[in-house]
Design brief:
single chain; alpha/beta; Amidase signature (AS) enzymes; 2 domains; 11-stranded mixed β-sheet; two-stranded antiparallel sheet; 15 helices; 13 strands; disordered N terminus
């Protein structure tokens, strides 16, 4: 904490917006404070692709010039946007110079909603090439986890997670195609919400990664996650209340055969279940019906989504990283041979919904990760096989719920023996985002977590 720039660095989005609306501070001051902190901390983290210094100050001044701030739920709040999401006036990098697209003429809808709520975009955050991997690094080096600089912050929304965990912004936008919000949230000790299908505008590439991808939010508190979710979903900010008595299914079995959650992750699930029991909820063992079919469908869809993105963008495969080239080629084969079918994904969604009904559970509790986050370095130049094994070995629990299109949230529980955060995942039925946030709030009250790891 010695490197804190000023008072407003480390404040929540709700605290900042309330203070700006009341006139206790200005958006300009808040943004300047955070830009100063970014200048101090980001050289060690490399969370940002671009920092919009002067532009962000001008935008903050425009917020301050508005006569009525009462209807701006994010008045003056500095936010970060993932680099595959269009921000007017900037290229959209997609994780590499090879995949970069032209300067965007207008904001993506989620960026428009953030700005419309009074937020100020201070920069765009880094991701792995084409968002394919659960580690965030590239030709110009890795993004680092503020809890331990030799470890990854996860991926693909790794830059957004690192920025929030280090206090460089109070909240950040990310997107999640096979865990790309929840994995970084678990790595960095954050609340990370992936909404269900079609709740927040997506518009990411070709068919939203064949229906896998959703935009969502990363935050240090449940209240901030709820506020960010409401803005992105185009809703009035919701007041969360403790949920009525719930029946919570608890599952430890990995979706991937041969991969098992380590002791700290199993202990995190046990702690969460105990806390929910103490709060008056019922917990029962309920292992999802993971099948070989859903595992294969997940892999093939992951491959094919990359191929279709590369094809639509006219990318020259020779300019991509070796791991990405092989991934795209596998996707081309899978797509052209008809191995990737919507009915596979629909079947898993139906099976998932039936599972909730058959087990009579309201939500499902699982580990967020299987083991400690991998090292920060050595992935972008590594082989496709290395990256595949690394991703599956440490982060197998997220992907099935993208295929099913169900909402899911990661919540911090504490720290591992190695000092890195550990969290758990909750999965809900369609339209249960606010319920998931309410459950997260129960854990936050019962088991407060350390919000930041300042660098």
């Amino acid at each position: 904490m010695d490197n804190l720039a000023t008072t407003w660095v480390g404040a929540t989005a709700k605290q900042i917006s309330r203070a700006v609306r009341r006139g206790d501070t200005t958006a300009t001051q808040v943004v300047a404070d955070h830009l100063e902190q970014i200048a101090i901390s980001d050289p060690a983290l490399t969370a940002f692709r671009v920092v919009r210094g002067g532009e962000a100050i001008v935008e903050a001044e425009k917020v301050d010039d508005q006569e009525d701030l009462a209807n701006l739920p994010l008045a003056g709040v500095p936010v970060a946007v993932k680099e595959n999401t269009a921000v007017a006036g900037l290229p959209t990098w997609h994780g590499s110079a090879a995949a970069r697209t032209a300067v965007a003429e207008e904001d993506h809808e989620v960026v428009r909603r953030l700005r419309g709520a009074g937020a100020v975009v201070v920069g765009v955050t880094r991701m792995p090439e084409m968002g394919l991997w659960a580690t965030t690094d590239g030709a110009d080096g890795p993004t680092r986890n503020p809890w331990s600089l030799d470890r990854t912050p996860g991926g693909s929304s790794g830059g957004s997670a690192a920025a929030v965990a280090a206090g460089l912004v109070p909240i950040a936008q990310g997107n999640d195609g096979l865990g790309s919000i929840r994995i970084p949230a678990a790595c960095c000790g954050l609340v990370g919400l992936k909404p269900g299908r079609d709740v927040i505008p997506c518009d990411l590439g070709v068919d939203n990664w064949l229906g896998l991808a959703e935009n969502g939010i990363l935050a240090t508190t449940v209240a901030d996650a709820a506020l960010g979710f409401s803005v992105l979903a185009g809703r009035s900010p919701a007041k969360l209340t403790p949920p009525d008595r719930l029946r919570v299914g608890v599952a430890l079995r990995s979706p991937v055969q041969g991969v098992r959650a380590d002791e700290p992750n199993r202990d995190a699930v046990a702690t969460a279940a105990k806390l929910l029991g103490q709060a008056g909820h019922d917990t029962v063992t309920a292992e999802p019906p993971y099948t070989t079919g859903v595992r294969i469908a997940g892999l093939l869809t992951w491959f094919a989504a990359a191929y279709r993105e590369a094809q639509a963008s006219g990318l020259d495969l020779k300019t991509l990283q070796p791991r990405t080239r092989r991934h795209v080629r596998l996707g081309k084969m899978a797509w052209n041979r008809g191995w990737v079918r919507q009915e596979q994904r629909d079947a898993w969604r139906a099976k998932s919904l039936a599972f909730f009904e058959e087990k009579n559970i309201d939500v499902l509790l699982t580990p967020a990760l299987a083991t400690t986050p991998p090292p920060a370095d050595g992935h972008s130049g590594g082989s496709w096989r290395h990256n595949l094994i690394e991703n599956i070995r440490y982060a197998p629990y997220a992907g099935p719920w993208n295929i099913a299109g169900l909402p899911a949230i990661v919540v911090p529980i504490g720290l591992r023996p190695d000092g890195l955060p550990v969290g758990v995942q909750f999965v809900g039925k369609p339209d249960s985002e606010l319920l998931l946030l309410s459950i997260a709030g129960v854990l936050e009250v019962a088991n407060p977590w350390t919000r930041h790891a300042f660098v």
